[in-house]
Amino acid sequence: MSVNITIDGLAVRADAGDTLVDVAADNGVYIPTLCYQRGRPCLGTCRVCSVRVNGNVMAACTVPVADGMEVEVNDPADMRKALVELLFAEGNHNCPSCEKSGRCELQVVGYEVGMMVSRFPYRFPLRDRETRPKKIWLENDRCIFCQRCVEFVRDRETGRRIFSIDHRGSRSRIVMDVALADRMSDQQVREAAELCPVGCILQKGLGYNDPIGRRRFEVRRLRQRVLEGEGQ
Amino acid sequence: MSGLQELMRRHGNDRARLIDMLLEIQREAGYVDDQAIQRLAEGLNLSPLEVRETISFYHFIHDRPPGRHTIWLADTVIARMNGYKEVRKALEEACGCVFGQVDASGSFGLFDTNCIGLSDQEPAMMVDDVVFTRLTPERVRRIVTGLRAGRSAQSLAAVKDRDPTDSDFAAQLASSAIRQRGPVFFSPDRDYPALVEKLVTLLPEELIARVVDSGLRGRGGAGFPTGLKWRLGREAEGAEKYVICNADEGEPGTFKDRVLLMESPEDVLLGMIMAGWALGARHGILYLRWEYGYLQARLQRLLEEWQQARLLGADILGQGFAFDIRIQKGAGAYVCGDETALIESCEGKRGTPRVKPPYPIEEGYLGMPTCVNNVETLAAASRILEKGASWFRALGAPESTGTRLLSVSGDCDRPGIYEIEWGVSLNKVLRMVGAVDPLAVQVSGPSGECVSVARDGERVFCYSDLSCNGSLMIFDRKRDLLEVVEEFTRFFVDESCGICVPCRAGGVDLLHKIRLVRAGRATRRDLDDIRQWGALMHATSRCGLGTTAAKPLLTTLDRFPERYEALLAPDEGPLLPSFDREAALEAHRHAHRILTEDASS
Amino acid sequence: MKPKNPREIASHELPATPLDAATRAAREEKIQVAMIALCGCWGCTLSFLDMDENLLRLLEKVNITRSSLTDIKRIPHRCAIGFVEGGVANDENIETLEHFRENCDILISVGACAVWGGVPAMRNMVPLEDCFREAYLEVPTTEPRAPKRIPWHPDIPIITDRVYPCHEVVKMDYFIPGCPPDGEAIFKVLDDLVNGREVDLPTQINRYD
Fold first, then answer.
1. C63: number of Cβ within 10 Å
2. Which helix (H) or strand (E) holds B151?
3. Which of B350, B498, B508 sits opposite A145 (nearest CB)?
4. Residues sharing a CB contact under 8 Å with residue C86, sequence separation 6 or more, in sequence order
5. What does the domain layout of chain C look like in residue ranges?
6. What does the alpha-carbon distance between residue B493 and residue B508 come to, in Å, rounded to a whole number?
7. Are strands B69-74 and B125-127 parallel, antiparallel or unpaired?
8. What CA–CA distance (Å, rounded) separates A191 from A45?
9. Per-domain residue ranges for chain A?
10. What is the chain B residue with the closest CA to A144?
11. Nearest residue in B to A43, CA atom
């Protein structure tokens, strides 16, 4: 069933139940996300896609569109920016010393929301790294707890989780099952590193694989990739 | 270790029973060791870290020895008003270790915990599987001495020879001071078999219509119409349906569900059976918070008695209605009061609130339509069955029918349970409870609002005004309100599940701000930050915990701005008051001092 | 401020040839701009120089007082705009930043170190004692018989417990991220301010590395 909604006043037609963030992208409106990826189940953890739906702020990745919905993307822009700033202050996001710079979704979303500085105090947490797996280095200081790895990376044979969460609240950490990690194929390791929006899951021996100026999001910005698709 | 295989088998090797398994292992061994984790993981096809995910989420599951006697002292604002600090110090001295540790001999483990549902008799603590209330330094010293001498906690609490399945067992440990009785709750001598009989003569639709007609709304806080929820549950499609009673009473300051489960547990069971009948569900789960473990044996016996009396089971009163109830024990997480987190916990997982939609009434426990109701809601429903919708609707106020239980604590002469009709004013309640020179009242616990008696005294309890979830904490003029605010803010940081950014990270920053204010180092800009960051958490958090975590700050800023302003630092620059120049430079002197001593030795 | 050593003379106290009246008047009409580096690598200051010929164009409107171009150590008179590179890592940085805040109308954090601490802030994850121990006491390359000492002298700045972003010490008005930012970004902000426009750093020239 098709429905009519408005996004910042723009009349949009969509299929009922489609996810708002996708509907917006299909209509040329980019809403940044850090946990959500089109085609995968919604995680609803980062809240960076917060928009106003019929007056209430909601994460656009969690909203199925319904007829008559009035969506404002522009209005809560500062809230989206603040959430990105929270993430920058919560971990250690030292772009100049990070292998993921130029390919990092947090960084590029920071640019998209116009972040210059975090309004929140920088915490400089000290978190234990997991360096034992043969092919993966887990740089936990950079983790933003999006849960992509926890939900989407599984041991191919048993279906068990390779990444899990330890503790709760501000003490939460992503941990890794070393035995299962060592069973991952090179291909799976590469996919896991690419799945990670930041420089937390790193493929050992890869490092800075593209020169500055030719890095993933310098070649083509995330905004374009979301609006026009990866294939182009 | 074959015991472990047997244990898993008893739980159907079902991952959804993981918390039960962990708690059972812990009951035997004191904690869950590495080997047990490995075996559980193998048996349930999980990675060991996945088992740890669940363990590390819950406050009361240990992965290392927590001492032969494990002591949990409730750190709450009410306890702090009643000698908590002295009790804490006495415990540390008596046990020979500080909080968060186990003493060198492994005899005692001392741990902090949040509200344990005894606010009218604090300071209070849990020791092993009993509770001690109205603590004084002298009393805790006696208890520790007794434990050291080899006596059990049960013996020290004078319940050693009592049967924990007896209806008065819990009353030996914790009193249930019902100060004002009303028409709905705690009514004696109800004929439950006759009521169940009456239930099954109604069509489910008739029952739902009656509950809709009564105007009953959820007593957990949100106030969703109960009849409507049951109707949605009836209409939802699913191979199975579930009814869950939310007895995870974690909101600091409330204890009315504990008292209901102590005094009238049958009302709650009857309410669950009604919900089961209304939905067409065959299974009920009573989610009992870990802190109420001393109620469990009695509830379990009651379930068995009702099964024998065919009030529960495969064929209730021979009417072909199958409905059974199991108790799911919680393991220590306030966030599990959120219905989707509660469902995750019932499935043996971390209590992470789910993304909504879908709502539990469509897809809940194990993906099936699930109706989650509060203890008090279900008990109230049981009276509607007996006395009728119009009887209930005649009580209270138009959009807030019936009565509600208040758990009253803090600065008043008569703390305890009060059944009030919706529609009474705050002032009237304050007079009723003997509040002395009250300044502020925390309505609905930290997640509610802090109101000013001077400004809000004539506001009334009802869903459109003071929609109280049952917690009422009173603070008189002498109290340091901002200490209360800091404590509540810390509580939310402690209890955040961590799944979403605003709550996990924002809460810590708010705590930092209130500490800055209390240290006299904040400026007006910091107060603006608190408002803005609080609004951010409120708007963007995933569940009710995050959306309300800033309320202690926001509501006191609104009602008692002078308490903040009195502490503001002059903002004359150039250095910011929040920057502590001396402390920043002292670190170097200190390091130089100790390293030079080190180096010279 | 630290008590001044009477035997010390700072460069701004040295006698200098006064400007002729016409030059002085011309300069005073311009917008006074200063730039200082705290705990950083001076890379941002190089980016400041990288404004190249853009800078020349701006010189009609601005006068650069204290900066790496002029080597003036104190701001001689009140400035409209102060650029700050580097974070706050010692008492001398605190003092300098305080001086800048007192004497500038607008203060701008330039580069990762000023904005959030940057590379020097990598020590923030380690207690200061451990930093000293590593740097002075347990160094594999020192001569084994040499006395083990932590330097301590009135002329050596006292290190802060951690590296602070400038805005956690004084109020900062604008921020230009980057390690270092491009000259283009610094120019854009300066040009906006000089021409009375609202400061706006477009997404294309904003970067964090």
1. 17
2. none
3. B498
4. C37, C38, C39, C40, C44, C93, C111, C113, C114, C118, C120
5. 29-122+159-197
6. 6
7. antiparallel
8. 21
9. 2-75, 136-203
10. B501
11. B355
The pLDDT of residue C150 is above 90? no
Domain A136-203 matching CATH 3.40.50: the answer reads no
Nearest-CA distance B287 → chain A (Å): 21
| DSSP string covering C96-160 | HHHHHHHHEEEEEEEHHHHHH-TGGGGGGGS-HHHHHIIIIIS-TTS-TTSPP-----TTSPPEE
Q: How many CB pairs under 8 A join A and C?
A: 66
Q: Is B122 helix (H, G, I), strand (E, B) or coil?
A: coil
Amino acid at B586: E
Contact A198, A84 (CB under 8 A): no
How much is the ipTM here? 0.97
Which token pair is A113?
A: 């929301």
Beta-bridge partner residues of B547: none
C contacts of B581 (beta carbons < 8 Å): 94
Residue C84's contacts (CB-CB under 8 Å, 6 or more residues apart) are: C35, C36, C37, C38, C97, C100, C107, C108, C109, C110, C114, C166, C172
Interface of B with A in 318-337 (CB under 8 A): 333
Chains that touch C (3 or more CB pairs under 8 A): A, B
Label residues A166-186 b or e (16+ Cβ within 10 Å = b): eebbbebbbbbbeebbeebee
| Residue B221 CB-density burial (10 A; 0-12 exposed, 13-18 middle, 19+ buried) | buried
Query: What are the tokens at B369?
Result: 């339509």
Exposed / middle / buried, residue A17 (Cβ in 10 Å: 0-12, 13-18, 19+):
exposed
Confidence of residue B596 (pLDDT cuts 50, 70, 90): confident
Q: Which residues in chain B have their CB less than 8 angstroms from residue C136's CB?
A: 595
pTM equals: 0.96
Q: Tell me the HSE value of B221 on the side-chain side, using a 13 A CA sphere.
A: 22
Q: How far apart are CA B536 and CA A87, in angstroms?
A: 14
Selected residues 172-191 of chain A with any CB under 8 Å from a CB in chain B = 172, 175-177, 180
Q: Does C66 touch chain A (CB under 8 A)?
A: no
The per-residue pLDDT for range B19-73, each reduced to its tens digit, is 999 999 999 999 999 999 999 999 999 999 999 999 999 999 999 999 999 999 9
- The mean pLDDT value of chain C amounts to 89
Contacts of C115 in chain A (CB under 8 A): 116-117
Read off the pLDDT band of C49 (50, 70, 90).
confident
Q: B9 in helix, strand or coil? A: helix
pLDDT confidence bin for C16, thresholds 50/70/90 = confident
Average pLDDT over residues B150-171: 93
Residue B490 reports pLDDT greater than 80: yes
Q: At B449, is the secondary structure helix, strand, or coil? A: strand
Residue B557 neighbours by CB under 8 Å, 6+ apart? B527, B530, B531, B564
- Interface test with chain A among B61, B500, B512, by most A beta carbons within 10 Å: B500
Q: Region C162-182: what's the mean pLDDT?
A: 97
Phi-psi region of B153 (alpha: psi -120 to 50; beta: other; left: phi over 0): alpha
Q: Is the pLDDT of residue C70 over 80?
A: no
Burial class (CB in 10 A: 0-12, 13-18, 19+), B250: buried
Q: Which amino acid is at A100?
A: K
- Three-state DSSP string of C44-91: HHHHHHCCHHHHHHHCCCEEECCCCCCCCCCCCCCEEEEEEECEEEEH
Q: What Å distances lie between residue B466 and B171, B221, B422, B470, CA to CA?
A: 31, 11, 10, 11
- The CATH class of C29-122+159-197 is alpha beta
Which architecture does CATH list for A2-75? Answer: Roll (3.10)
Q: Write out pLDDT tens, residues B90-121.
A: 999 999 999 999 999 999 999 999 999 999 99
Residue A92 one-letter amino acid: N
